[in-house]
TrEMBL record:
<comment type="similarity">
    <text>Belongs to the thioredoxin family.</text>
</comment>
<dbReference type="Pfam" id="PF21352">
    <property type="entry name" value="Zn_ribbon_Thio2"/>
</dbReference>
<keyword id="KW-0479">Metal-binding</keyword>
<dbReference type="InterPro" id="IPR017937">
    <property type="entry name" value="Thioredoxin_CS"/>
</dbReference>
<keyword id="KW-0249">Electron transport</keyword>
<dbReference type="Pfam" id="PF00085">
    <property type="entry name" value="Thioredoxin"/>
</dbReference>
<dbReference type="InterPro" id="IPR049299">
    <property type="entry name" value="Thio2_N"/>
</dbReference>
<keyword id="KW-0813">Transport</keyword>
<dbReference type="GO" id="GO:0046872">
    <property type="term" value="F:metal ion binding"/>
</dbReference>
<dbReference type="GO" id="GO:0015035">
    <property type="term" value="F:protein-disulfide reductase activity"/>
</dbReference>
<protein>
    <recommendedName>
        <fullName>Thioredoxin</fullName>
    </recommendedName>
</protein>
<dbReference type="GO" id="GO:0005829">
    <property type="term" value="C:cytosol"/>
</dbReference>
<dbReference type="InterPro" id="IPR013766">
    <property type="entry name" value="Thioredoxin_domain"/>
</dbReference>
<dbReference type="InterPro" id="IPR036249">
    <property type="entry name" value="Thioredoxin-like_sf"/>
</dbReference>
<dbReference type="GO" id="GO:0045454">
    <property type="term" value="P:cell redox homeostasis"/>
</dbReference>
<dbReference type="InterPro" id="IPR005746">
    <property type="entry name" value="Thioredoxin"/>
</dbReference>
<keyword id="KW-0676">Redox-active center</keyword>
């Protein structure tokens, strides 16, 4: 029986980056990582860097919404609480992550980030769509939901 028919997905642990197989019916049980014992599915953004980004995005079967931001960006700071709230609302159907573009400049270049904040929605390891500019919680949630 493959993972699709068994209702299982692969999720990268936000703590140790191990790939875990989680049954869909166990999402609400706060599944633990088989390697580090940490919680695998969390309703808040995971901090990603150039060294952790590709594995987290490509090995997680769920969609991942990524906020590209910078510490000096006023709009990014004002949107941070809305992104945190949206993360809880779209969880567990979509996971969330944040990338500090000052710390991970190579990711900014790789994804051609030209304005901040910019949200990228990934599915199956590939960028599905993007939007730039500060948004409210409701706007973020609506944008993700209309993305499918």
């Amino acid at each position: 029986m493959d993972d699709t028919t068994s209702g299982a997905i692969h999720v990268v642990c936000p703590n140790c980056r191990a790939v875990n197989r989680v049954l869909s019916k166990r999402f609400g049980d706060q599944p633990a990582c088989g390697k580090c014992g940490g919680q695998v599915l969390i309703p808040k953004p995971v901090e990603l860097t150039a060294s952790t980004f590709d594995r987290f995005i490509s090995k997680t079967d769920l969609p991942v919404l990524v906020d590209f931001w910078a510490p000096w960006c006023g709009h990014c700071k004002s949107m941070a609480p809305a992104f945190q709230s949206a993360a809880a609302e779209i969880f567990p159907k979509t996971l969330t992550a944040k990338v500090d573009t000052e710390y991970s400049k190579e990711l900014s270049a790789k994804f051609n980030i030209r304005s901040l904040p910019t949200l990228l929605l990934f599915n199956n390891g590939r960028e599905q769509k993007r939007i730039s500019g500060a948004m409210t919680t409701q706007q973020i949630v609506a944008w993700v939901k209309q993305s499918g």
